[in-house]
Design brief:
heterodimer; A: about 375 residues; alpha/beta; Thrombin, subunit H; nine-stranded mixed sheet; 17 strands; about 20% helix; disordered N terminus; B: about 250 residues; Rossmann fold; seven-stranded parallel sheet; 8 helices
């Protein structure tokens, strides 16, 4: 949210990158029992013992294993790039003075002018027309927001101006907020279940969940085996706008990201010496490919916003491998996978994952594409 | 160049007693930033202006929180990580609560109070280390847990407080062992008898003027947080003893 020290200041951010045409990659049906409805630790598994499906980019060959055996697939010198964005309790429930409605706000993105984009969900839902420009939502005695205008690109999002900013804003959000949760969960799991062990600055609307299975024990083990790591920050936005039609269009949200000089140097070093760069999560791929696209294939320290859409016809410049969760049929992440492997291979792999009863979503199983 | 220039510290229990003196001592060494946690709202302004006077460039973030609450600890971690820019150098787990005073015998100790004392004195340090480790593990950091003689000897009447400090001693040893191969150092300090409000509450019949001024025991905390203490890890030290000689050379 705030600029980490030692990074260049924001300049010309919010560049508009024209979305490429939507190219349907796959279609499949996800049986509801394959939604991971609780964290692995709450279904009798260690955090790092979820299942891992390893997909060979070249041969399409699939290996089924356990996440803590990821060490067998990574070589000394490989560079794992993590997204260290910390999950916010991004769901806030506000009331409207003198009216019997509550409006749930899901924070999506902090804009450069200090306002936020947020998804507004009135309750009861039929009260949708209560949301208008100028509406004041009250969250606590000294914490409220004013609804400004509707977002041009994603009409379910509104621009919001809060009565606090900086540390005070964070303090209030953490006092009253809850993590963004979806219907398939068996219980309202608390925020700490939505954090990666390596998470740093807060700002993600939803957990960058591809790295959730890493434990410190595993990270230290990888380190001692000579697998390198770097961290960037991309504050992930919302994965759903709670609107089937809008979600099907999977408009690429605009997301804020930082790459430090230290991380950029590690990434350049790996690239120049031909070592593999493995993104932990699609957010990392998006950040690294965005900066490469802007600076002639070179990763440099930056603080920017991206709207880059990565699809089957996108030629990856930086990232060789990807660790990711299993994605829903509509998820734009699925299109991104097509930049790594041909769509028929994704389809075959996902069919196999369904057959093998892999679990989907943030608390589910993982997929390593190498 | 002072001893703590460019370092960012989090101190819990910072509004009074030892925590307050540590904040001032770190400010005197030009610490880059201070995240100060305490339960109350009141005495902050005075402390903040004192720090501003000593070290005008130090970024001071005040966080009001109940360390007995997991959600409050999440909030403390998030605000600290934001304030320090993802790089924390020093974590002092100083906050503790006595529980009900006068302290009841275990025989009579209400279980809710017992759990609250363990949450603040033991679970909170565990969670703060766990939540903030990512900000220390690449560049190195110094974690200092404030223990007590009551964490070594089971005195009658020291109830949950003493037991929580026994736990903290074990917690510190285990963290130190797990982090032995990393650049993060864990040490724990028994500050000895100090003339603080908490100690006066614990032993109202004793003469507090016989106890040390908390401002007089801060040197070991500056040492452990600084470059000079970089070889000291996994050790229990006593602030009012000849601790420089007690350090085991690694």
């Amino acid at each position: 949210m705030l600029l980490p020290p030692g990074l260049p200041s924001i300049k010309n951010i919010r560049k508009t990158v024209k979305p490429k045409s939507v190219n349907r990659t796959t279609a499949f049906h996800l049986p509801s029992e394959l939604n991971a409805d609780r964290p692995p630790e709450r279904r009798g598994l260690a955090r790092d013992r979820v299942r891992l499906l390893v997909l060979d980019r070249n041969t399409g060959q699939v290996t089924h294993t356990r996440f803590d055996r990821i060490t067998e697939f990574l070589d000394p010198g490989d560079l794992l790039v993590f997204n260290s964005s910390r999950t916010l309790p991004a769901t806030l429930v506000g009331t409207v003075r003198h009216l019997p409605w509550a409006v749930e706000v899901r924070l999506a993105e902090l804009l450069p002018d200090g306002t936020w984009l947020g998804l507004l969900v009135p309750s009861p839902q039929k009260a949708e027309n209560v949301v208008t420009k100028g509406l004041i939502l009250e969250f606590a005695q000294d914490f409220r927001c004013e609804v400004l205008e509707r977002d041009q690109r994603i009409p379910r999002l509104w621009k919001l101006r809060f009565s606090k900013s900086g540390t005070e804003f964070l303090d209030s959000v953490y006092r009253i907020g809850q993590p963004v949760r979806y219907r398939y969960l068996s219980a309202p799991w608390r925020l700490s279940y939505y954090q990666n062990v390596y998470a740093l600055q807060p700002g993600a609307a939803e957990m960058p969940s591809a790295g959730r299975a890493f434990t410190w024990r595993l990270l230290l083990q990888l380190r001692s085996r000579g697998v390198e790591s770097a961290s960037i920050t991309l504050h992930a936005g919302l994965s759903s706008y709670l609107d089937g039609e809008l979600d099907r269009q999977h408009l690429a949200a605009e997301e804020e990201y930082w790459i430090s000089e230290e991380a950029a140097a590690k990434i350049r070093g790996a690239k120049n010496s031909g070592r593999r760069i493995v993104g932990v999560g699609t957010t990392v791929v998006r950040a690294l490919e965005s900066i490469a696209a802007e600076s002639g294939g070179e990763v440099r320290a930056c603080h920017q916003y991206t709207q880059l859409r990565i699809t089957a016809d996108y030629r990856l410049q930086i990232v060789n491998g990807l660790l990711t969760g299993l994605h829903e049929p509509e998820a734009s992440h699925l299109d991104l996978l097509a930049a790594f492997v041909p769509p028929p291979t994704i389809y075959a792999t996902y069919s196999e994952a369904i057959q093998q009863r892999y679990l989907w979503h943030e608390f589910g199983d993982l997929n390593l594409i190498l | 160049m002072k001893l703590l220039s460019d370092r960012f510290a989090l101190i819990t229990g910072a509004s009074q007693g030892l925590g307050r003196e540590l904040a001032l001592a770190y400010a005197s060494e030009d610490v880059r930033g201070l995240a100060l946690v305490a339960r109350g709202k009141e005495p902050w302004q005075k402390l903040k202006s004192e720090i501003d006077k000593i070290a005008p460039a130090t970024n001071v973030v005040i966080i009001q929180a109940d360390l007995g609450s997991i959600t409050d600890i999440e909030r403390v971690a998030a605000i600290t990580l934001e304030a320090c820019g993802g790089r924390l150098d020093i974590l002092v787990n100083n906050a503790s609560t006595l529980g009900p005073v006068p302290m009841p015998y275990l025989l009579d100790y209400p279980v809710d109070d017992f759990q609250q004392v363990l949450n603040v004195n033991l679970v909170a340090p565990f969670l703060l280390i766990q939540n903030l480790l990512a900000a220390m593990i690449d560049h190195g950091g110094s974690i200092i847990n404030v223990s007590s003689d009551a964490g070594r000897v089971g005195y009658p009447g020291w109830g949950a407080y003493g037991i929580s400090k026994f736990g903290l001693e074990g917690l510190s040893q285990t963290w130190a062992a797990e982090l032995a191969e990393t650049p993060v150092r864990v040490n724990w300090v028994d500050p000895g008898n100090m003339n603080t409000a908490m100690h006066r509450d614990a032993e109202p019949n004793e003469d507090p003027t016989a106890w040390a001024d908390p401002a007089a025991v801060t040197d070991i905390f500056v040492f452990l947080a600084s470059e000079a203490g970089r070889h000291v890890r996994g050790q229990r030290l006593e602030a009012q003893s000849n601790w420089r000689n007690a350090i085991t050379k690694g």
